Amino acid sequence: MKILTGNELKSGDVVWWTGYNWSRHVSDAIEVGDTVDQIIAREIAARTVSDCYTVDAERTDAGILPLHIKEKIRATGPTVRPDLKIAPPDPAAGNWVI
Amino acid sequence: MYKYDSFDQQMVDTRVEEFRDQVERRLAGKITEDQFKPLRLKNGLYLQLHAYMLRVAVPYGTLNSEQMRMLAHIARKYDRGYGHFTTRQNIQYNWIKLEDAPDILADLATVEMHAIQTSGNCIRNISSDQYAGAAADEVADPRPYAELLRQWSSFHPEFNYLPRKFKFAVIAADEDRAAMRLHDIGIQIVRNDAGEIGARYYAGGGMGRTPMIAPLIREFVPIGELVSYAEAILRVYNRYGRRDNKYKARIKILVHEMGAEKFIEEVEAEFVHLQGQNIDAPAAELERIIAHFEEPAFESGLSEDIDRTDPDFAVWLDQNVDAHKRPGYAIATISLKPAGGIPGDASSAQMDLMADLAEQFSFDECRVTHSQNIVLPHVRKADLYALWQKLDEAGLASPNLDLISDIIACPGLDYCSLANARSIPVAQKIAKRFADIDRQKELGELKLKISGCINACGHHHAGHIGILGVDRKGTENYQLLLGGSGAEDVSLAKITGPGFDEDGIVDAIETVTDVYVAQREDDERFVDTYRRLGMAPFKEALYG
Ligand code: SF4
């Protein structure tokens, strides 16, 4: 499945498309379909986000997660600073990137 | 230290206001991201893996305590309470908000700092010897010459759109503490037989995907022509450097493809052409700059004695303290590599403390090193114990300078969007594996350097042991390299063979150090043993 991500323009924070707005939690992401190009164009024009693109993801017990390690780290914060992690709803979140 | 004059200050202040306007226009939708991106990059603002990242220039690695406190303030007020000192003697903040960036730059400008030319295809911040002005082996303080080049290269209209980024290092000692020959231009300030000061020029060095050691371009350029010779090199590069292929655009490729001899011919012809065009600063201007770097008021008649009664202090003293040019003084290095810590990271509180210590013990000065540590260059020997006690209380007294746990590591995949693999956790695991300080000392000088991708910000080519993170079908893999050096015995490390996973690379480090311990002769360092024996015994132990 594909999910849509970007960086919030003002803060630079990593955000995920929820179907109607952007969330900092990847678990809120939804699968995007054929309309993704229109969403990107609209959101870029609205100056909410910059650098929009889709990433491969999978549905797991902990919710939706990107497949590639880079996007996993992007979704949850640096693996070396647990205090700065954006925790997905998974008690083992500290380890699941690795 | 150099103090801005009204021109310097006005340039920086004007740039802050210009950028404030650009950010406002971006947020108001008057310019697109494509239009804005080159403008923010010119001000050191990247969009990284998690947020905007701001790279702040620390010219030739020198900071006073007021500046260090400002770096702490920015980390506290606008970031998440820490910053990362880089291998180019700069500092990076990882969690910057675009809307805050103009205020940050305005705050920096109040202490004569900025982020100009810390990105983009221009002349970047000029690096230097962290022991400048303190080392016994230097012919002069290299920083006035670096400062002259900083002024010349700031906003230089001809060199703002080079084929690729361009990095200078300026040193003035035979011992190279700045990886000088791995820069686009490396300058060694020297004295000729007549006793005159001049510059020995190297050009075409660099790391990245095609590492090269800079060849000698000219043995002696009179100091009064320092700038015009640099300009001649830059002009030849600007004219012939490849703009068709990003990966072949650095000057090292040009020098290599053209051949050093032909390149020198071109530079010399351009140098002749530039003579008489008043490119160099008048002697009075150089003197004005040199006056800013006058020695601090060193005391004479100080005691050379140091009380070594405290054994922990004695270990730190032997490892992290170096000889100073003046009797009664020493150079102390604060390690930013605590066991299990993140190489080069410092919290706001640590930065504040280092500022206080610089003020109290080191004539208000500290230095950032390319090995991601902080140096207090002028400490009275009699004060070393008091200094160490304060560092120890703050967890900043790791006695590991130049040992295996004094690891250079780039931010890697934990922060960097170009990365293939994480660097920091590998550094942490190695530091943990070799945590015993006696074991580290037994291994002696061992420079271990880790990059998270081929761009080599972690200087892996220049490590006695280097590690390069690669992406192998979506998983992190680590190549091992041996035999590099960024010092005066400069050499490029070679890959041992197939890579390892994260735990495997830690084991592999232990394997190669075991080979070294078993095979070393006399006082050989790891790299000396490697050079004597070659790759074979290490390869045999690693792969059987
Ligand atoms: S070496 Fe690669 S991963 Fe490391 S900081 Fe540089 S670009 Fe990023």
TrEMBL record, chain A:
Check the record and name the InterPro entries matching this protein.
DUF2849
Q: Which Pfam families match?
A: DUF2849
Kindly provide the name given to this protein in its UniProt entry: Uncharacterized protein DUF2849
Organism equals Parasphingopyxis lamellibrachiae
TrEMBL record, chain B:
UniProt keywords (A-Z) are: 4Fe-4S, Heme, Iron, Iron-sulfur, Metal-binding, Oxidoreductase
Q: Which GO terms describe its molecular function?
A: 4 iron, 4 sulfur cluster binding; heme binding; metal ion binding; oxidoreductase activity
Signal peptide bounds: none
Species of the source: Parasphingopyxis lamellibrachiae
Start and end residues of each Nitrite/Sulfite reductase ferredoxin-like domain: 52-109, 342-394
Enumerate the spans annotated as Nitrite/sulphite reductase 4Fe-4S domain.
Answer: 119-271, 405-542
Any Pfam family from its record, for instance, is: NIR_SIR
The protein's name is Sulfite reductase (NADPH) hemoprotein beta-component
Name the PANTHER family on file: BLR3264 PROTEIN, FERREDOXIN--NITRITE REDUCTASE, CHLOROPLASTIC
